[in-house]
Amino acid sequence: MRRTFKFQLRPTVRQAAAFTAMLNSHRALYNAALQERRDAYRHPSRTTVRYGGQSAQLKEIRGVGHVKVNQHRPVLGTVKTISVKREGCRWYVVLSCDDVPAAPLPVTGAVVGVDLEVASLATTSDGRHIGNPRYLAAVADRLARAQRRLARKKRGSARRRKAVARVAALHGTVRRQRLDLAHKTALGLVREHDLIAVEALRVGNMTRRAAPRPDPDRPGAFLPNGQAAETGLNTSILGARWGVFLCVACEYTAHADVNAAVNILRAGLARQATQAA
What we know:
This protein is α+β, with helices and mostly antiparallel strands. The chain contains 7 helices and 12 strands. It has helices spanning 13-42, 51-55, 135-138, 140-152, 158-192, 227-240, 256-276, and strands spanning 3-10, 68-70, 78-87, 90-98, 111-116, 122-124, 129-130, 195-198, 213-214, 222-223, 244-246, 253-255. Strand 5 (111-116) and strand 6 (122-124) form a beta hairpin. The longest helix is centred in the middle third of the chain and has 35 residues, at 158-192. The chain is extended, with a radius of gyration of 26 Å. It starts with a strand and ends with a helix. The model has no long low-confidence stretch (mean pLDDT 84).
């Protein structure tokens, strides 16, 4: 199988400057190559511009020296490609490897349904609740101060660039924390279960304001589509955090999220049986 390994680089100030210069050079070359293809296509002769000829114009990363790498896991297989990328103020090396040996997980015989939520991250059919640490709320005050400082800076100034980098760094921290939690949670579920049933639900649609429906016959007017009611329902769900499911027929009560996860698991098992048949 083919896998990608991503490690953070620890370049010195001189090496980071060399990487930045190389990145700017490659960006200019890419834009020039794209324009060359456009001009060749529009030319009456329809000259063919191939990748091989254009890629030869790209510069290799030389003169940087040995760069420290935070290698948190071993590299498996045969390295085919190596690329260096920048995310914010951080540099990463990405290795694409072939012939990586597969490591099948042992059979557990367990199945689980997962209900994605808004108030918390997820709830499983066996009653496990995965909390939502609210990483953005933890840095909300610092982020607000950084954005206020950014708003006061003059456009095009060095201080504004530093302020932009500060805001981007805070957002990057939240993004990495969220990805880390999602990856670790998913890995734990995969290792512990043979089948995982998940609802095809867009949680983001539950947290945003419902879109109005324009009237095609009257510009600037809108048709009634229950926008206010839908928005109010989403707000009430977020505010109340409904926690109890009650059947009015048999008076059965259960945790609403656990009950939803159980129903998702039943639907997943039924779909699997239908596909197997």
